[in-house]
Amino acid sequence: MLVNYRVEPDVLARQLPAPFEPKLQNGKALVGICLIRLRGIRPRFVPEALGIRSENAAHRAAVVWTDAQGLRREGVYIRRRDTDSRLNALAGGRLFPGVHYHAKFETDETADRLMIDVAADDGETRVHVEARLTQAWPADSVFATCDEASQFFAAGSLGYSATSEPATFQGLELCCKSWHAESLAVDEVRSSYFDDPSLFPPGTIHLDNALLMREIEHEWIGQEDLCCSSAAVVAPTTKPQPPEVPDEAPVPIPGLAPS
Questions:
Q1: Which residue has the higher pLDDT, 79 or 227?
Q2: For the chain, how big is the Rg over CA atoms in Å?
Q3: In-domain check, residue 236
Q4: What number is the average pLDDT over the span 178-198?
Q5: Residue 103 belongs to domain spanning
Q6: Which residues, at least 6 apart from 196, have a Cβ–Cβ distance to it below 8 Å?
Q7: Which residues contact 195 (CB under 8 A, 6 or more apart)?
Q8: How many angstroms separate the CA atoms of 51 and 255, rounded?
Q9: pLDDT per residue over 104-139, tens digit each?
Q10: Is residue 247 in a domain?
C-alpha cells in the first residue's frame, strides 16, 4: 500500500539531505508511507518454502539527483524503515541495504478493506491507516488518473536509505515482473512524521491519493552506496543508527537477504 501526500517543494527540500531534490508533479512534491508485506523472501537459489515473511513500513519522498557521471536520476529517498522482523532489524544496514527499526504491526484485512497500525519500539514511528478499494479517483489529486499516479511511482523503483553516516546512502532497487495498482479511498490516516506541524506546517501538506498493489512477483537488488562529499542532514530526529540487538534476537541465516 502506498499512501501519498502532496507537499510544498520548499518544505520538503528542507527535509532532504544532499544530493536529493524533490521530484515534482504539477508543481508539488510527493511524499508518502509505503506499507508492504513480504512473503517468501530469500536468495534466488533458495526454495520459496524456506523464505521468510515480514510486515514493513517506509517513510519516503520522490526525489531526483545528479550521479557521479553527471546524469540526472530519479527514485525515492527513504528517511526511515520499520519492520516486525527481528532478523530484518538485526541485518538491515549490515547484511543487506537499509537500516531497519523494529516495530509492532497490527493488520485487519478483507477483500476490499484494510487497516494497518504501526508502533515502533523506540517511539519514533507511529502510523495508522484505514482504507478501502474504490473505482473513484480524488478530484484534487496532482495526478489525473490512477494509472498516471501508478506510472509516476513505478519510475521510483530505486531507493536510497539514510544510514548512520550523513553523506552515505544505501541503495536497493525493486524489480517487478508485473506492475498493477488499484485506487484506495483513505478513511483515516495518521503519521507521527507527516502530522508534525514543526516539520510540515499546516496548509503545506495534504493527502493526495493511495494505491494498492497485490500479489506482485518481484526481486530486490542491492546497489552501490551513494556517497557525496558533504550532506546537510536536516531530518527531525537523530541520524539513523543500527538498532541494538536484543538478547533474544535470532541469529541471522548466512546469505539470507530480505527487503
A1: 79
A2: 18
A3: no
A4: 94
A5: 2-227
A6: 236
A7: none
A8: 12
A9: 999 999 999 999 999 999 999 999 999 999 999 999
A10: no
Domain count, the chain: 1
For residue 76 the three cell numbers come to 525515492
**Residue 43 CB: number of other CB atoms within 10 A?**
13
Identify whether 14 is part of a domain. yes
Of the spans 52-56, 89-93, 100-104, 238-242, which averages the highest pLDDT? Answer: 100-104
pLDDT at 69 over 60: yes
Please check whether residue 232 lies inside any domain of the structure: no
**CATH number (domain holding residue 174):** 2.40.400
CA gap 153, 155 in Å, rounded: 5
Q: What pTM did the predictor assign?
A: 0.81
Give pLDDT, residue 42.
Answer: 46
DSSP codes of every residue in the chain: -EEEEEE-HHHHHTTPPTT-EEPEETTEEEEEEEEEEEEEE--TTS-GGG-EEEEEEEEEEEEEEE-TTS-EEEEEEEEEEEES-HHHHHHBTTTBSS-EEEEEEEEEE-SSEEEEEEEETTSS-EEEEEEEE-S---TT-SSSSHHHHHHHHHTT-EEEEE-SSTTEEEEEEEEES----EEEEEEEEEETTTT-TTTS-TTSEEEEEEEE--S--EEEEEEEEEE-S------SSPPP-PPPPPTTPPPPPTT----
pLDDT at 121: 97
Residue range 80-98, pLDDT digits in tens: 999 998 877 776 666 566 7
